Amino acid sequence: MYWIADEESLPQALSDESVLKHIIGLYEMAVRERMSIIMWQRYVDFAAGLSNSRDEEIRAAAVAAFGREDYVIALLRQGVEATGAHYLQSQALWMQYCDYILHQINKAEGSQKDELVEQLQSVFIERLAQPHTGVDETFTMYSEFTTRHNAATYEQQMVDANKIVSVTRGQSVQRNAFEDRLVESEGSWAEYSRYISGLAADNTTQPAEICMLYERALVTSCYSPEVWSEYGAYVAGAFDDTQVALDVTYRGLRNCPWSGRLWAQCVRFAYAHEGYELASRVYARATDTHAVSYSMVEYGLLAVAWLAVTRADPGCDDEMLLDTCDQCVDVAYKLDPSTADPVLYFERCCTSTAANAENGTERARKLWTRICKARRFCTEAWVLSAEFEAAHGSAQSARSVFRHAAQRKLDNPERLFDAWLALENTSGELVDIDAAERIVCEQRRVILRRAERAHTMAGPAQSEVVLPVKRQRSVTPEATAADHSTSVDHNTPADSAQAQSTKSDSAHPADQPRVTTVFISSLPRTFTSADVEAFLGGPTQATNISMQIDKAGEFHGRATASMQSASALIAALDKNNTVVDGHHISVHIYKQHAKPVETTVAVRGFAANATNKQIAEIAKPAGTVVRVRRNQSGDTAFVVMHSYGDAVRAEAALNGYVLDECTLDASIVKSGRATAKQKDAKEASVTSLAPRKVARRPAKKVGVLKTAPAQEPSSASTEAKSNAEFRQLFLGSDSKP
Length: 737
Hints:
Low-confidence stretches: 459-515, 672-695, 699-718, 733-737
Largest sheet: 5 strands, antiparallel
Distance between the termini: 91 Å
Number of helices: 30
Strand content: 5-15%
Radius of gyration: 41 Å
Helix content: 55-70%
Strand order of the largest sheet: 2-3-1-5-4
Shape: elongated
């Protein structure tokens, strides 16, 4: 609007035909880009102002720019057609249209007047049949018009109009209820969606009214790809003209160029409208501008549409289709792997397309090999690769894929085990079934040992992960085993370790039960924290919902939540790959990569001549020793271990160890729990000016001056000496302390 105002303010702008055409083009572009009652009203007022101008030059330029003399009435008719379906705000422009026709009727005579009367009567009937807030006002205007211009047939016309108005009033009641809920929700897309669904269920609703609701929703949701995509899909099904659907998708891409779904929709609509050439230009535009290069999921949606278009085009042979599959995989796997689709939608479509092509089985196998190498921790990739081998290769090749995948640290190993055992039980021999079960059992034990080791070595800053009670498979930051079963009849090693623990005061906080955090991705962008909470089972199951947003405040479908119990965690993980509004939602354990916390072990009871190196050698087999230091009195050594797990093992190794006929006593130093003796010693070290007491350990060998007097051996020479005594001994009596 500011652009148009600047153009209109130019000198001689309204009298210059070229400038006037430019202004008209701006108005046309504005009303096409966005359905706005205000913009249409301003456009009509601009045209009416040109028509009513006293300057003959301006009127002539307007006729030349619009290309017709009756441009005002034509523009009014166009505006009424574009905005007439707006339930709340369409009455003003429609009344201006009627007033203009009435003005023309009053000036016309004869047959021309009769034509205008008939035209306005049909306009009234159409308006009365269209639901709007001013239906009673329209009916009153029609009654006055009929009395004045069709008095002879007044009674029959009003009876017919009453039948139409009674139906319209019934429709208005339904719409008034929806409009009230829209006001309460402040125009949310969820309420607009219910409004649209309610009207779409009524067969008497015109498509223009549904489109108007989408346009109204886009006023506040113009940056929501889901709204644009749904709008384009509706237009494509409601109208035969593919250009209308393509225009809607183009508008959506101008507002949401990052959406792979919109680019995919645009590729399909472009192919339906003009064929392969236009679709290829759209695909090239998306890849050249890197619009969806930030996400493998978004690019995958575009690539799947491009593969569908390539497959449908008669001019594309199988070799070209296979090359397209390879090219799409090349582009996809150069992107950030953390943005990959957990359900491998793009990969499945690509390999299936290749396998269905002539001589394409080997190419599809190479694609799966490449996918599994790139996503070596993704269970679904290995399962799908094995299923491909079972369908297009042999059971032995599928078994080889399963056996190879079972050796890896997968994100969901139970999914792999279940698929493998299902294959063997449906098509394998008894020997194969027994072999698969042995390998699966062994791998489950490996996973449990790995989980137990990670749990034992976890420090205070470790992620909030617990080993579930009475479950065979555990979830840790290193191995996420999303188990779909609900009960196992034996305890985990963590349960046994907990039962054997008798020193409650020495238990580390990491050993206590914690609330487990889950990471949810691929959520619809319309989701709120309340929606995520409801998805996970409500406030009794999930708390501390955190919606992850970017710097611009946009939500991209990722959130974290704390589960209240092990059963709530299991229920949440079971919802992995659940489809909500077309989104395959992913639920996994939230991994926090925290650094291990250094932990100190205090050692006492050693001999005076024991060195720090000797103590470190005893603790070294338990883990990484960072350093060893002693206190001021020299009777306590502090062994700093790399992690809490190392400290636990070092304590066990040092406690009770006999060193030089002295039994060591070791214990883990609890942070923030200094004893009264330690506090007093600390205060004394700060306030006292007296020399520190020398530690009871051998003095360093110092070269003796030749002029120093010989010292008689004495039994007291083995006793501890102060700094002043050492100076007296080695430097002579003239030295000063």
